[in-house]
Amino acid sequence: MTDVTTGTTEAAQTTQTTGTTETRPTVDVHAHVLLPAIDALVAGLPGHAEALALDAGRNGPASLAVSGPMVRERIPRMTDPAVRLATMDAQGVDVQLVSPSPSHYHYWADEETAEKVYLLANEATAAHCSAAPERLRGLGLAPLQHPDQAVRALEHALEQGLAGVEISSHAPGRELSDPAYEPFWSRAGESGAIVFLHPFGCTLDERLDQWYLSNTVGQPTENAVALSHLIFSGVLDRHPGLKVIAAHGGGYLPTHIGRSDHAWSARSDAHAGCAHPPSSYLKRLYFDSLVHDPHVLRELVRVAGADRVLLGSDFPFDMGTEDPVGALRAAQLAEADFHAVRGGTAAALLRKD
């Protein structure tokens, strides 16, 4: 049993520090649930076939041939809470923050369909997590293609007992800096809701349709672009209470933030939107640890702070890690930093009011 408020858990790792024993849960903030009811809801609707064709073109046939069997093999871990919990036990993970598979965004959908999607996603995710509420916290969805609905979707997610919502890096024709999202950012900041920024698809399209570049290059590129919009537009200045968690360690931005700082200092157009050097905003964001390189993880902790990096596995996809704690340990962080990333910071974020 785990209590993310107090940090007590039977399975948690225990460490001796300065003569005292601290017990903290291990918290994975990047884990997904698959919701077949949403697939059934959108099947055959106008726009769905075109969206599938766009996704297929972006990934390429070779990647699709691998991804299909990979996802099918992992369906029990994403749909059956008992299988999920058994896998978590094997990984040494006490608590997961569970978000819908990004394939459920459906940003092509009209307003009526978009509302049905977020209502179903929020309720189904809450139901999945209710199987083990002491170990599973959930996130809903917000339809970025309809900014007026985003606040309502967030409110509905919170009403379901979810911790916040998951969003992509952009919507068709809109970046996260778009003024139309100001009410959403405002409400997210006021409510203390978590906004999990997880890209789906990359606008570089067919340039990345071989060798799974759509994911290996596309995802970190989309993360970097989206975060840059939040920083340079002043969204984080206007809404200092935002709790944004960026998947995939924030992509390329944290390790190349010096270039952003230089542009901010050297050019008036780069300086116009945000009040402080871009690197300073890394300490206002949160990042998961899923960077697949211990040296990059150490650098992420250096530039953002251990109190801004959270354990993430991308459960249970093949671009994640089966051993998130082992991957974290490989970075050889200071003991206090290791335990902050392992779960201390996330447990505080997920505390119940």
From TrEMBL:
Residue ranges of domain Amidohydrolase-related in the record: 27-351
Keyword tags: Lyase
InterPro entries in the cross-refs: ACMSD, Amidohydro-rel, Metal_Hydrolase
Disordered: annotated span: 1-25
Biased composition (Low complexity): 1-23
PANTHER family noted in UniProt: 2-AMINO-3-CARBOXYLMUCONATE-6-SEMIALDEHYDE DECARBOXYLASE, ISO-OROTATE DECARBOXYLASE (EUROFUNG)
Protein name: Amidohydrolase family protein
